[in-house]
TrEMBL record:
The keyword Transmembrane applies. This is TPM domain-containing protein. Keywords: Membrane, Transmembrane, Transmembrane helix. InterPro entries: TPM_dom.
Length: 219
Protein backbone atom coordinates (compact mmCIF):
# COMPACT_ATOMS: atom_id res chain seq x y z
CA UNK A 1 0.00 0.00 0.00
CA UNK A 2 1.32 3.42 -0.98
CA UNK A 3 1.86 5.90 1.84
CA UNK A 4 0.97 8.87 -0.38
CA UNK A 5 -1.48 9.17 -3.24
CA UNK A 6 -0.31 9.74 -6.79
CA UNK A 7 -0.76 13.50 -6.59
CA UNK A 8 1.33 13.68 -3.45
CA UNK A 9 4.14 11.60 -4.92
CA UNK A 10 4.15 13.68 -8.08
CA UNK A 11 4.23 16.91 -6.07
CA UNK A 12 7.24 15.73 -4.05
CA UNK A 13 9.08 14.69 -7.22
CA UNK A 14 8.34 18.09 -8.76
CA UNK A 15 9.68 19.80 -5.64
CA UNK A 16 12.91 17.80 -5.88
CA UNK A 17 13.33 18.73 -9.54
CA UNK A 18 12.67 22.38 -8.73
CA UNK A 19 15.11 22.39 -5.82
CA UNK A 20 17.87 20.75 -7.85
CA UNK A 21 17.59 23.39 -10.57
CA UNK A 22 19.82 25.74 -8.60
CA UNK A 23 22.44 23.31 -7.34
CA UNK A 24 24.83 20.57 -8.35
CA UNK A 25 23.61 18.64 -5.30
CA UNK A 26 21.21 15.72 -5.56
CA UNK A 27 18.20 15.32 -3.27
CA UNK A 28 16.71 11.94 -2.43
CA UNK A 29 13.42 11.69 -0.54
CA UNK A 30 12.45 8.59 1.42
CA UNK A 31 9.14 7.98 3.19
CA UNK A 32 8.65 5.10 5.65
CA UNK A 33 5.57 4.09 7.58
CA UNK A 34 7.79 3.38 10.59
CA UNK A 35 11.45 2.67 11.17
CA UNK A 36 11.22 -0.29 13.52
CA UNK A 37 8.72 -2.77 14.93
CA UNK A 38 10.01 -2.16 18.48
CA UNK A 39 9.66 -5.82 19.45
CA UNK A 40 12.04 -5.25 22.35
CA UNK A 41 9.67 -2.66 23.80
CA UNK A 42 6.82 -5.16 23.52
CA UNK A 43 8.84 -7.50 25.76
CA UNK A 44 10.40 -5.03 28.18
CA UNK A 45 7.09 -3.78 29.56
CA UNK A 46 5.57 -7.25 30.20
CA UNK A 47 8.75 -8.34 31.97
CA UNK A 48 8.74 -5.15 34.05
CA UNK A 49 5.09 -5.77 34.92
CA UNK A 50 5.87 -9.31 36.06
CA UNK A 51 8.71 -8.02 38.24
CA UNK A 52 6.33 -5.46 39.71
CA UNK A 53 3.82 -8.18 40.59
CA UNK A 54 6.62 -10.20 42.20
CA UNK A 55 7.78 -7.20 44.21
CA UNK A 56 4.25 -6.50 45.42
CA UNK A 57 3.87 -10.12 46.47
CA UNK A 58 7.14 -9.93 48.37
CA UNK A 59 6.08 -6.78 50.21
CA UNK A 60 2.53 -8.01 50.89
CA UNK A 61 2.66 -11.81 50.82
CA UNK A 62 -0.68 -13.37 49.83
CA UNK A 63 0.13 -16.44 51.93
CA UNK A 64 -1.42 -17.54 55.21
CA UNK A 65 0.64 -18.03 58.29
CA UNK A 66 -0.02 -21.09 60.44
CA UNK A 67 0.21 -20.13 64.08
CA UNK A 68 3.65 -18.91 65.06
CA UNK A 69 5.53 -21.73 63.40
CA UNK A 70 5.95 -20.18 59.96
CA UNK A 71 4.48 -21.15 56.63
CA UNK A 72 2.51 -24.33 56.31
CA UNK A 73 3.20 -26.52 53.29
CA UNK A 74 -0.32 -26.11 51.94
CA UNK A 75 -0.33 -22.35 52.29
CA UNK A 76 3.10 -22.11 50.65
CA UNK A 77 2.08 -24.21 47.67
CA UNK A 78 -1.15 -22.27 47.22
CA UNK A 79 0.63 -18.96 47.53
CA UNK A 80 3.34 -19.84 44.99
CA UNK A 81 0.70 -21.13 42.59
CA UNK A 82 -1.30 -17.90 42.96
CA UNK A 83 1.85 -15.87 42.34
CA UNK A 84 2.66 -17.88 39.23
CA UNK A 85 -0.85 -17.36 37.88
CA UNK A 86 -0.68 -13.64 38.59
CA UNK A 87 2.69 -13.36 36.84
CA UNK A 88 1.46 -15.27 33.80
CA UNK A 89 -1.76 -13.32 33.46
CA UNK A 90 0.06 -10.01 33.91
CA UNK A 91 2.64 -10.89 31.25
CA UNK A 92 -0.01 -11.98 28.72
CA UNK A 93 -2.28 -8.99 29.30
CA UNK A 94 0.52 -6.45 28.90
CA UNK A 95 2.05 -8.33 25.96
CA UNK A 96 -1.24 -8.50 24.06
CA UNK A 97 -1.99 -4.86 24.82
CA UNK A 98 1.35 -3.91 23.28
CA UNK A 99 0.51 -5.83 20.13
CA UNK A 100 -1.44 -2.66 19.27
CA UNK A 101 1.23 -0.60 17.54
CA UNK A 102 -0.05 2.88 18.54
CA UNK A 103 0.26 1.94 22.21
CA UNK A 104 3.68 0.38 21.64
CA UNK A 105 4.90 3.55 19.97
CA UNK A 106 3.38 5.70 22.70
CA UNK A 107 5.30 3.81 25.35
CA UNK A 108 8.57 3.77 23.43
CA UNK A 109 10.98 6.42 24.74
CA UNK A 110 11.50 9.24 22.26
CA UNK A 111 15.26 8.75 22.42
CA UNK A 112 14.82 5.12 21.35
CA UNK A 113 12.63 6.14 18.43
CA UNK A 114 15.13 8.82 17.40
CA UNK A 115 17.97 6.27 17.36
CA UNK A 116 15.98 3.79 15.28
CA UNK A 117 14.92 6.46 12.80
CA UNK A 118 18.49 7.69 12.47
CA UNK A 119 19.73 4.15 11.91
CA UNK A 120 17.21 3.51 9.16
CA UNK A 121 17.93 6.87 7.54
CA UNK A 122 21.64 6.08 7.39
CA UNK A 123 20.86 2.64 5.98
CA UNK A 124 18.61 4.16 3.31
CA UNK A 125 21.36 6.64 2.44
CA UNK A 126 23.93 3.89 2.04
CA UNK A 127 21.61 1.92 -0.21
CA UNK A 128 20.22 4.75 -2.29
CA UNK A 129 22.62 7.68 -2.33
CA UNK A 130 26.05 6.97 -0.89
CA UNK A 131 28.73 7.19 -3.60
CA UNK A 132 26.08 7.38 -6.30
CA UNK A 133 27.22 10.84 -7.41
CA UNK A 134 30.64 11.67 -8.85
CA UNK A 135 31.18 14.67 -6.57
CA UNK A 136 29.59 13.06 -3.48
CA UNK A 137 26.97 15.79 -3.28
CA UNK A 138 23.83 13.87 -2.31
CA UNK A 139 21.37 14.76 0.44
CA UNK A 140 18.81 12.27 1.69
CA UNK A 141 15.63 13.41 3.41
CA UNK A 142 14.08 10.59 5.42
CA UNK A 143 10.64 10.78 7.04
CA UNK A 144 9.22 8.11 9.35
CA UNK A 145 5.50 8.70 9.68
CA UNK A 146 4.50 6.78 12.79
CA UNK A 147 7.34 8.25 14.84
CA UNK A 148 6.77 11.79 13.48
CA UNK A 149 10.54 12.01 13.11
CA UNK A 150 12.79 12.86 10.20
CA UNK A 151 16.48 12.84 9.40
CA UNK A 152 18.73 14.51 6.87
CA UNK A 153 21.80 12.50 5.85
CA UNK A 154 24.42 14.12 3.62
CA UNK A 155 27.25 12.89 1.44
CA UNK A 156 30.84 13.76 2.30
CA UNK A 157 31.16 16.85 0.10
CA UNK A 158 27.93 18.35 1.44
CA UNK A 159 28.90 17.52 5.01
CA UNK A 160 32.16 19.46 4.63
CA UNK A 161 30.52 22.54 3.15
CA UNK A 162 27.23 22.82 4.98
CA UNK A 163 26.97 23.15 8.79
CA UNK A 164 24.36 20.92 10.44
CA UNK A 165 22.51 23.99 11.71
CA UNK A 166 21.65 24.92 8.13
CA UNK A 167 19.08 22.11 7.94
CA UNK A 168 17.09 23.30 10.94
CA UNK A 169 14.39 25.14 9.00
CA UNK A 170 13.87 22.20 6.67
CA UNK A 171 13.41 19.81 9.56
CA UNK A 172 11.06 22.14 11.42
CA UNK A 173 8.89 22.72 8.36
CA UNK A 174 8.67 18.99 7.72
CA UNK A 175 7.76 17.93 11.24
CA UNK A 176 5.17 20.69 11.65
CA UNK A 177 3.30 19.57 8.53
CA UNK A 178 3.53 15.88 9.44
CA UNK A 179 2.05 16.51 12.88
CA UNK A 180 -0.79 18.33 11.14
CA UNK A 181 -1.42 15.26 9.00
CA UNK A 182 0.10 16.64 5.79
CA UNK A 183 3.20 14.54 5.05
CA UNK A 184 3.36 15.47 1.36
CA UNK A 185 3.25 19.17 2.20
CA UNK A 186 5.96 18.62 4.80
CA UNK A 187 8.25 16.86 2.36
CA UNK A 188 7.73 19.60 -0.21
CA UNK A 189 8.42 22.36 2.29
CA UNK A 190 11.57 20.62 3.51
CA UNK A 191 12.82 19.95 -0.02
CA UNK A 192 12.33 23.63 -0.93
CA UNK A 193 14.46 24.69 2.04
CA UNK A 194 17.09 22.05 1.32
CA UNK A 195 17.30 23.38 -2.23
CA UNK A 196 17.86 26.88 -0.91
CA UNK A 197 20.71 25.70 1.32
CA UNK A 198 22.32 23.70 -1.48
CA UNK A 199 22.03 26.58 -3.94
CA UNK A 200 23.97 28.74 -1.48
CA UNK A 201 26.73 26.25 -0.68
CA UNK A 202 26.78 24.07 -3.81
CA UNK A 203 25.49 26.25 -6.64
CA UNK A 204 24.71 24.80 -10.03
CA UNK A 205 27.47 24.66 -12.63
CA UNK A 206 27.57 23.78 -16.31
CA UNK A 207 28.76 20.29 -15.35
CA UNK A 208 25.55 19.48 -13.47
CA UNK A 209 23.66 16.32 -14.46
CA UNK A 210 20.75 14.59 -12.77
CA UNK A 211 22.44 11.54 -11.26
CA UNK A 212 19.73 10.30 -8.89
CA UNK A 213 15.98 9.84 -9.43
CA UNK A 214 13.67 12.65 -8.36
CA UNK A 215 10.82 10.34 -7.38
CA UNK A 216 9.81 9.69 -3.80
CA UNK A 217 11.03 6.35 -2.44
CA UNK A 218 8.51 4.63 -0.18
CA UNK A 219 9.57 1.90 2.24
Amino acid sequence: MSLLDGAGRDAVAAAVKRAEAGTDGEIVTVLAERSDAYHDVALHYPVAAVLAVTAIAAIHPPLLMVGDTGWGDWQLEQGLFALLVAQTVTFLVVRFALAWMPLRLKLTPRATKARRVRRQAVRAFRLGADRRTKAHEAVLLYLSLDEHLAEIVTDSAIHRRVPNEAWGEAMAALVDEVRAGRPAAGLIAAVDRIGTVLAEHVPRTEMDVNELPDRLIEL
